[in-house]
Amino acid sequence: KETFLKSAQKELELTATCLQKQPKSYSTWFHRAWIIQKFFPQVAKEELILCDEFLAVDERNFHCWNYRRAMCQLAQQSSIQFARTKLDANFSNYSALHELA
Questions:
Q1: Rounded to 5 degrees, what angle do the CA atoms 26, 51, 24 make?
Q2: What single DSSP character describes residue 63?
Q3: What are φ and ψ of residue 13, in 5° steps?
Q4: Per residue in 5-44, pLDDT tens?
């Protein structure tokens, strides 16, 4: 099991690097979510910080919004307040609006 955890940790590092270069890569976000859900569900709240950083750069990155939604579910945390804050900052943020729908 320790070998799997080490490999999973390396995969998280790889996905972080990939997302820095291409933050709208669906497959990278999906793979990262799979790793977190399978091996590290306890860090879901920390992943929300990562999402906040990416959404500060591009508030309409719907891949990140989807990932954030998955992490909120895993952390048993609501995303409504975050979405409202994003809408207050920019009323035309359709990704935030979709989150509230």
A1: 25
A2: H
A3: -65, -40
A4: 999 999 999 999 999 999 999 999 999 999 999 999 999 9
| Amino acid in position 84 | R
Residue-by-residue DSSP string for 7-56:
HHHHHHHHHHHHHHH-TT-HHHHHHHHHHHHHH-GGGHHHHHHHHHHHHH
Does residue 100 contact residue 83 with C-beta atoms inside 8 Å? yes
59-93 pLDDT, tens per residue?
Answer: 999 999 999 999 999 999 999 999 999 999 999 99
Tokens 């943020």 correspond to what residue? 93
The DSSP secondary-structure symbol of 83 reads H
pTM of the model: 0.93
